[in-house]
Each structure stands twice: as structure tokens, then as C-alpha cells.
Amino acid sequence: MHAWMGRIAVLGIFAATACTGDDATPADTDGTTGTSGSGTSTTMPTSADSSSSGSVDESSGGPTANGLLACDPREANACEEGICSGASHSGFYCRPACPDTAAQGEPCGDEAVCLSSPDSDALACFSLDDCAFLSGDPCANGDTCAVLTFEPIRTACVPSPGGDIGSSCGPAGALACEAGAACLGTDLDGDDPGRCQQWCVPGDALPSGCSQCIPLSDEIGTCSECSVLAQDCQRGQACQPVNKLLGGVCVDFGDGAPGDPCDPFDPEGFCAEGSLCLETDVDDVFACVETCEPSNPMCPEPQACVDFGVIVPAAESGILGVCIDGADVFCDPDAERPCPDGGICLPAGEGVGVCGAACDPTEGFAACDDNFACLPLDADDNFNPEPFSEGNGACGVGCTNDGECGGDTCLLLDGVESDGICGTTCTPPVGAECAGGETCIPTPGDPGTGACVADGTTCEKAAIGGCPTPAACVELDGGATAICIPSCFEQDPLSCGAVPANCQVKTDPRWHAGLCLGGEPCDPISPECGPEQTCEVVGGSAVGGVAFTCGDAGDVTEGSRCEDADCVEGLMCIDNTCREMCDPTDDMCSTGACTDVSATYYLPTDQLGACL
Asked: What is d(CA 129, CA 112) in angstroms, rounded to the nearest whole number?
């Protein structure tokens, strides 16, 4: 996990347990109705015996009146059909999968929309019902009204075995709480159950047994003793979080200083004034975390003040934050101006992102400050994988006319920095003058004359990945057709046969948008990161520059694949394999030989080695 992603882990106790919705207009609600709709549902096909009514087992599911089956998203093949989707506070159920091309909040049937789940980016088709989240009406036959999203508020009738206020529930399976309550305070990754806690509507009469309504927004809140955001306990106490939606209980100040281990519910382990006891990773490790004022942050370096308004859906910004290790500035990707100084907010999780300066990855090490790497972004400021598969340029000696090609022909192109590239003059379509692997391409201005081009096969215009790797699809002058040309990275000093001047960078803005990410450097050869951390590298390929930063260590050992997991402490993920790093000029490998991998990251020779 890269360092800036790892630091988001401390925010886990506050991260919303469901998607926060999308840009759709919120439905009007007063706690008696949620999302408008007729109650018509679009559910996954079920087996023949699932049409009967009856209770549902909260972990494994069972027959239900509306066809929804409870499930556990952590289990492989949790659903015979569809995908296991939902959230701990509203229950997990098998629902039909949305097409890969669907977008968050897009309709997928009559009164149904595509939504993601906290544990997965896959979209499922959620049926919506116009039900009251306080009373559960008009849900029947063992169903209750679940709140699916908060911005806008969407509701649905889901099977529930019920559960008293304060009883244990979750973290997976059906919503096991009575009407008017949600399962809050769970930890799906840590397999920690939560408690059934009441919903409320700010400003309205409090439900029976509700001491205070802690607003999540103007439309919905949770019943708790105090507000984490307002810190409204009596003098000498802090409001300690007990759910993920800003509700808490008042506890006395303790002796724990920032960074000290703590126990959120043991008086012997309480934190001192100015800190909260928060889970700092998914293994139930709690530590005192200093609070801060977002408008006047006073966090010690290299920490940054992260506003609760950034990480809790619909929460008010500018009131309270927490000091998080690292110089990153966290942000709300959906905010109108998420980052100061015109920076870009790169989404890094549900409702949270990290700010960075805009950059052009094709500028290489000049794109960002030292130890910051320029990561390619798409038009929506999300990570852009396209350059990694195709490169950001095409190889060829640049030209504007035949006179610049020394007797050869200038083939005019569109979409690259040079007007064209030089090729041996040939006669289409045979092109007997061309060498092996070349194609005689007719010039747009004179189809009877051609230029020999490496590869040169026809491709679909603007298609990404339509050419055999490594090649890019480039349009001929006028855009009538496009051909495959060997690709390159503009920032690679060894591109195009170590003649980088022959890499003609693409001009479309999508190849030039990026975000600078990095921070305090670490030494990959002699890392001195914190406990359970390792030195990681971001650079090479489509990235501009390089950054070495400390990130969370994982459990992947030497020589094992690390595409989707982190290496153990002291190893680095090189070409998707965990390796011991070394100094190419001083081979001290415990296994294998020290191989210079500097060029992989566009570094000068002898800067970085790996034991292979």
C-alpha cells in the first residue's frame, strides 16, 4: 500500500459504511419516507424454494418474501447468482450485477439504481422502496427499511431477523436490527460486530429512548450521547466515537499522549485532552490521535489536519479534524473546491482523496518537486491506466516536409508533436523498398507515393490498446485513417532505441494530465521506515519522475507476486515481484546477484539495484 493510501487507514472508524451516493438530487424526507418509488423491485433470480416467505438467517441468508438473500462479501462465491452487495449498516444481500459500463447512481430498472459497496468497486442493481427509516413502514413480511445511501438518502425494504436497540449485529449478513435502527460501529475486515443504534431526524421529536440526535445531515442523524464533531461533553470529558457516523459516548480524559496505545472503552486506556482513541489499522490497533481545527491547523510536522467533513458523508466541514502522519492534504473528491491552491483531488477511497499539484507526466523529473512522482489522470481526475498500456508517444524521426528526410518521404500525421515522421520512399501497395516488419503507407497528399513505417498496420482511430504491444494508434494527416507505430514514453531517456528525441509525444490533453504524489523520502537500499513499514517506489513507465516513500508492509515474501498485496518489511515490489534492494556498485545480496534496475525508473545508471 503506498504511503498516502496507508495513512487513510487511521480514518477507518469514521469512513462511511456505504457509498455516499452521487450527484443526483436528494429526495425530500422527514424520516417517514426515503427515496420516492412505488416499491417495485428488480431482484436477482432465485431458486425455486426462495419464493416462500419466512425468516432469514443473518449470516447465511434464507427464503425471503422479496427474493433478497443475505450474504457475506468476504466469502468466495457468496452468491449463486449476482454479487454480494450492501453495507454493514444496511445489510449485505445478493443482487444483480450492473454492466461494466454502468455508472454510480445510474438506473438499472424500475425504481432501481446501480450502487457500489464499501468493500468493492463492482456495481450492483439495488431496488429502491419509498419507506420510512424511523418506523419501517410500509415494509412487511419480516422486512425493515434500510438506508442505502446518505447523499441522496435512498431507502429499501430488506429482509431482517430484527434486533433490539443496543444488541450485537453484523458485520456481514442481513440487517439484524429492529425498525428505525442501523448496525453501526462494525469492522468488516476485522470481523468485529457492531450495535443496533437508532436513526433520528435533526430538529424533529426524538424517538423513544433517544438521548440526542447527532446530525449526519439536515435529513438524518443517529441517536447517541454526544457528538464527536461538536465535542459537547461536560468539562473534563471527550466524546469518544462509538459509530461511524459521528455518534459517541462521553469518557473522562486519560493520560494517553498522541501516538500512545489506548482502549476506547477502558478508563485505564483513555487519551488525554485534545486526542481521540481511534483504530489505526484493520487489526484492532487503537492509538491516541490528536484533534485539530481545520481552519487553524496546528499539527506537528510532518502531520496534516484532516477535516471530518472530508471523510464522513454529509458531515459539516470546518469544525473538527485529526492529525494524520504525513504531509498529505486529504480532500473530498465531490467538493466544489476540494484542494487549496487549485490542486487536484485524487480519489483514494469512498468519500476521501488526497490533494496534489497538477503536472504533466511527459515532463519526467521536471514534472514535480524532488521525491514526488507525476501520476497520470483522466478527464475526471481519476487514475488513468491508458498510457501504461500504449505509451504517450510514437517513435519516428520528426519532419515537416520531404526536404527534412534526406531523400526519404515525410509521412504527415495528426495527434503528435511533429508534423510527421520520415520513412523510406516506397510504392504502395507492395512497398518492395521496405524492410522486414515495415509497411508502405500511402501519403495522404499523394497516394501513389508512400513511406515505409515500422509495423504500419491499420487500427481504429482513437482506440486504446488496438495495436500489438508496444505500439500506438496514430492518425494520418486529415484523420481519414490510422496506423500502428512503435510506441514510447516521452520521459524515458532510453526510448526509441536510446534516441529519446525520436519519441513524438501525443498532443491530446489526456496524455498530459497528472497529479504529483510523494513526500518524505526513504532509502530503498537501507530503509529506515517505521515498524511494519517498508520503502516503496512510484515511477517508471507512464509516471513522470520517481518517489520513494514509506508505506505499510504486507505479508508477501521474497520472490512472490505483489500485484495486489504488499511486500514484507525490507522488500520492494519490482516488476510485480517482491525483491531485496541493493547497491549496484556494492553487491551485498543475501540471495541472487545485484542487478541494476535504475533504467526501469528512468534513473541514472548504478542508482538502484535488485537482488535477482
From this structure: 9
